[in-house]
Amino acid sequence: MLKRIALTLILLSTVTGEALAVAKNPIVISQAQARASVGKMPNSAAFLQIENRGKNDDALLSASSTAAERVEIHSMNMEGDVMKMRAVDSLAIKAGEKIAMQSGHGYHLMLMGLKKSLKAGEKIPVTLIFRDAGKIRVTADVVETGAPAKPAYGMHEHHDH
C-alpha cells in the first residue's frame, strides 16, 4: 500500500511539474535552423517551429541575432505565378497552435546584414521576443541551402526567458 501511495505521489508530482512548466513557459521553440550564406551574400534566412502550449494567444513581435545587423519576420506567399515576400510587424500564435517556419512558403526570419558568412555546421544565437512570453533564446544550426528540416519528433531547443 505504501508503495502505491509513493508511486502515485511521484506520478502526480511529475505530471504537476510538467503542467507548471507549460503554464510558466507555454512557448516551445524547436527545429531552429539558418541557411548557410552563399558567397558574400549579405542576407540569409532562419526557420523554426513555434508551439504555443498555453491557454492564451501570444505573438512573436521581433527577433535579433548577433550574427546579423537585424532580423525581420517575413511572410512568403504565391500571388499568381509570383512568390511575394513581405516583412510583417508580428506573428500571432494562437493558444494550442504550432507554426512551422519553412523554406519556400509561410513565414521565416530574414537575417539581414550578416556580420560574416554563415557556414554549414556552425551555430548562431537567435533571440525571439514574444508579447507575453518575453525573450526566448535559441541556437540555430547552420545548414546548407536546400537541406531538409530537422525531424520534428522529440527535438526541442533549450531556451530561457
CATH level-4 homologous superfamily? PCu(A)C copper chaperone
Strand content: over 45%
N→C terminal distance: 42 Å
CATH T-level topology: Immunoglobulin-like
Largest sheet: 10 strands, mixed
Order of helices and strands: HEEEEEEEEEE
Oligomer kind: single chain
Radius of gyration: 18 Å
Low-confidence runs: 4-23, 151-161
Question: Which geometry do the CA atoms define?
Answer: globular
Q: Give the integer mean of the pLDDT values.
A: 82
Structural class: mainly beta
Number of helices: 1
Secondary structure: number of strands:
10
Percent helix: 10-25%
Work out the count of structural domains.
Answer: 1
- The CATH class is Mainly Beta
- Judging by the overall fold, what is the CATH architecture? Sandwich
